[in-house]
Every structure is written in structure tokens, then in C-alpha cells.
Amino acid sequence: MSQTIEVKFFASLREQVGVAQLQIGVTSLDALRDALQEQLSEDKFEHLLAPNIRLAINQELVEGNWRESSLALANGDEVAFLPPVTGG
After folding, report:
1. How many structural domains compose the chain?
2. Is 67 helix (H, G, I), strand (E, B) or coil?
């Protein structure tokens, strides 16, 4: 049985990446990075690597540098890419 992760892109990231969500079969954050790098064009993938982009797994923020994490993911997990919060 394969494992599927739901990946969501919010607000300005949705526009920059060109999709609202993807279904990807991976088991860790480092595998997710590799899969996204393969599926997205280089300029779209670069938006996800910006230093102010946050990541949430199942609606809980990932602390530290997620770009270097090999945190395990489980079937059905939701991974959300969050742009910086702005306000006025």
C-alpha cells in the first residue's frame, strides 16, 4: 500500500507555485523536498526555500529549519507551506 501526503500552498505561495495542493507519495520531509524539486520548475521550487516560509504538518508549525529536516511523514499527513504573515 502506498503512502500519500497532501501538500497545500497558501496565499501568495499558491500563486507563485501555480497550484493549491498536490498529492505526493513520500515518507519524510527530505523526500518531499526531492519530489517537489522534481515536480515544480526551478523558479517555483525556489519560492518554497525562502527563509521566511514556514511549514506546518497536520496544522502544527515545524520548529527549526525544515529545509534540513528528515522528519518522518505518515500516510494521510497534511503538509502546508505558509508565506509570511502580513497585516496593517
Report:
1. 1
2. helix
